[in-house]
């Protein structure tokens, strides 16, 4: 089976810049990292590309890696590809076992399951097993569950069982802080005037 995406060492709660647009998602992700499987299960975070959803998934993984060694982070496209390979090789039981044995399942870009009926059915059963065993599930998407018309109603209903929170594009103050932080991390000196222009 393909190797799942690696967790980015730079994406932690400490490096996440909060502002009005993402404060609720940050707080929910932090709560999940502190009490996985107890509050906000599942946690569904949605918003445009580049607003910090993936960063929060990685931050949860970092925060939990000591106490929950069976953390599985995967993007939905890779989940689909692995499932197709398992079907072709008649290894679906191994595939299901891999995902059902996770303590924490982090799925990025869940919208990529849209229109893939068999993959959705598989994910539905994995979701139910994990949820029934109080395992934490966190998903990100570029749209809310209600806007996922090509996802089955029963799977969308699972997405809505917990907390759904959005991340909006950052306001100008938060954008400036993000740019300044990135510049300092890259050891670049950029004046406030230039940052305003960016």
From TrEMBL:
GO terms for biological process: DNA replication initiation. GO terms for cellular component: plasma membrane. InterPro entries: AAA+_ATPase, Chromosome_initiator_DnaA-like, DnaA_dom, P-loop_NTPase, Sigma_54_int_dom_ATP-bd_1. Keywords: ATP-binding, Cytoplasm, DNA replication, DNA-binding, Lipid-binding, Nucleotide-binding. Pfam families: Bac_DnaA. Residues 39-165 form the AAA+ ATPase domain. The keyword Calcium does not apply. GO terms for molecular function: ATP binding; DNA replication origin binding; lipid binding. Belongs to the DnaA family. This is AAA+ ATPase domain-containing protein. It comes from marine sediment metagenome.
């Amino acid at each position: 089976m393909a190797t799942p995406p690696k967790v980015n060492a730079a994406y932690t709660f400490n490096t996440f810049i909060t502002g009005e647009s993402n404060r609720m998602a940050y707080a929910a992700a932090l709560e999940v990292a502190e009490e996985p499987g107890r509050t906000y299960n599942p946690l569904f975070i949605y918003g445009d590309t580049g607003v910090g959803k993936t960063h929060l998934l990685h931050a949860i993984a970092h925060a939990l890696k000591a106490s929950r060694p069976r953390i599985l982070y995967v993007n939905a496209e890779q989940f689909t590809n692995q499932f197709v390979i398992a079907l072709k090789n008649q290894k679906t039981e191994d595939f299901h076992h891999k995902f059902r044995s996770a303590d924490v399942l982090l799925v990025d870009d869940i919208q990529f399951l849209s229109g893939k009926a068999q993959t959705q059915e598989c994910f539905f059963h994995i979701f139910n097993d994990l949820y029934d065993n109080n395992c934490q599930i966190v998903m990100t998407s570029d749209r809310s569950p209600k806007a996922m018309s090509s996802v089955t109603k029963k799977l969308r209903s699972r997405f809505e069982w917990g907390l759904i929170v959005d991340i909006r594009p950052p306001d100008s103050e938060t954008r400036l802080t993000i740019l300044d932080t990135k510049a300092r991390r890259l050891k670049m000196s950029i004046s406030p005037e230039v940052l305003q222009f960016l």
